[in-house]
Structure formats: C-alpha cells, structure tokens
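Late entry, written up from scratch paper. The run itself happened at the end of the previous shift, but nothing got recorded in the book at the time, so transcribing now.
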Amino acid sequence: MPTVSVNLKDCSYDILVEQGVLHRAGELIKAAGIEGHAALITDANISLHYSDIVKSSLQAAGYKVSAHLIPPGETSKCMDQVQLLSRSLIEQHHDRSSFVVALGGGVVGDLAGFVASIFYRGLPCVQIPTTVVAQVDSAIGGKTGVNEPEGKNLIGSFHQPSLVISDPDTLLTLPDRVFHEGFAEVIKHAAIRDADMLGHLESMDPNNKSVDPELIARNAAIKARIVEEDEREQSGTRALLNFGHTVGHAIEASAEYGTLLHGEAISLGVRAALYLSEKVTGLKASYTERLLALHRHWNLPLVLETEISNDAIHTALSRDKKFKNGKRPFVLLCSPGDAVLSEEVTHDLINEAIDHIRTPIEGSVAA
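Output as recorded:
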C-alpha cells in the first residue's frame, strides 16, 4: 500500500492509498491508535455509495458509530451547517473522547474537519476523501473551514487529521465533470513542484476513472512536503499551493458558489496566473501553451464567459486571506516546477489578466 507520512512536530500522521481500502477503514483507524465514539459525517450523495461500507468497517473494529448527513454541494460549507452538525453530535452523546470521520469530497472534509476542530475544543479527525480534489489536496494539511457570502474559506482553523485513507476506487462513481475538475489540482502540483508529472498527465485517458494509487500518492507527497516546510503558511512556502487560486477563488465567489466547481474556477485562475507569469517572471510562452493544452485535455474551462465584472472580481480579491498589509502576493511560475511568490502584480496587470481569460481559445471549454 503506498503510504505517505506527514512529519510534523506535534501531529504527524499517515496518508494510506490503496484500491479497496475503504473496506478496511475501521481496522486501519484502530491500528492508528484512535479510540472512542465515531461520528461519521458525509453528504447525501456519498452516503448512497459508501456510508454503509465505512460504518460496517468501523463497527467490525469495535467502534460505536453515529451517522450525520449534510446536503451535497458548496452551499453546505457554512456556519449554519457547523451549528447543525455540532448539535447533532451533542444529541448523539459525543464528548471529548469521540472522533470524527469525514467521508466525502472537499466540502465534507473542510466542514467536518472544522467541526472536529471546535467541538469540545477539538476532536481527532480521520479524513476519508472520495474525490480527486480531496485525495490529492484538500484532505491533507489541516486547513478546515467554511465560506461566507463575501469569500471562500474566510472562517476556519488549522486542524491536522489523525489519519487519511484514500481509496481510488471511490473515483469510479464520480460524475465526469467532478472527476475532471480534480485534475486542476494535479496539474497545479506538476506545475509548481513536479514538471516530470506533466508527461504522465498528457498520456492519461481523461475518460478512464481508474486512477493509479501511485499517482494519488505522488500528489499527496507533494502536498505533504510543502505542509512540513510551512504548516501554517508563515514562511511563504505553503502559499505556493495557491497557484491559480487567487483569481480562481475570486471568480468562484463572484459567480456564486455552485456555478463553477472548484477545479473549474482554478483552471481559469491558472490561465490568469500564466499570463501574469509571462509578464512578470518571464515564463516562456511555450510552457504556458503546454499547460493550457493539458487543461483542455482534461476538459477544464479556460475561457470566462459568465457575466462577472472585473470590479466584482477585485472586490472578492480584496477579501482574500492572502491579502496582507495592502499587498496581494501572487504565485507565479518562472519555469516548469519553479514557482515563486511575487508582490509585483499591479491592479492594472490583474485587469489585463482577467480580460485575457475572457478571450476565446480555439477548442477550449468555456465557463
């Protein structure tokens, strides 16, 4: 079984990746030394496929389990759901000896992780991600939180999981659009830290949802190493994971949550970041074209056609958590696998980049 260790001073943990491992979740959680009453949090869609498997596995390992459902979709990442889940845990007699199991994609992981971080001032959390985005990115690193109308993930906490269990077989049941959007994060990892991965992604069939566990583990390792270097985003290293996310999150918020999937918004943000990279860091146009072609290969949008004004995007940008001391640092590329944090991106350049991603590209999907 590919295993990636996240080595942190006070809260190290393993990421386990294997096809069919969902059926062994309870056994693996027990082996990790996690005890108590299990609160299984998932959404209504994921529950149909996997809740019974995980619940049975937990019970077979000797755990008492309560199940807690949230509505599917980004709108569930809100404080109302935090309160509803917290009250549900109280009603099911959970206490500080309990632990949370987050079964689902990024929404479930972020929300359940945040509830775990604040319920009785903190419970252990096991992440069982079921989407590409969650398996390669959001379930790892301890960022939890919810959205507000003004922006994405504005309320949250750092709360590292105690264990991450990733079963690539869960990707087989994803809708095509949800499967493809996850590869925006995989392409991001290749762009900032692992240029050799680009060729592998170019050779893959985007219609084949059987993903090699080694690819999931390779991406998990990239995220793990960066988190180890800068767990709480203080040195700037972890900020490199935000390549494409600054403009992408602003578009996602401006378009109302749910209009664009996370990876689709990030794909648009990457196109903007590549444009800015050519202007500021001198990124070669040939590398830009290769990355854009890879996004097209994975059916990710590169053209912003929704009715969102530049002013609306700038307003969302001003609320970005990365906006500090009047400056808005951008992650830019210098060359394949070499990303930097720059504060040389002006308001006018951002406008140029937004206008640029409204420009059609032949053969590209529009958002």
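Residues 176-366 form a domain with the Dehydroquinate synthase-like, alpha domain fold (CATH 1.20.1090.10).
(Scratch paper discarded after transcription.)
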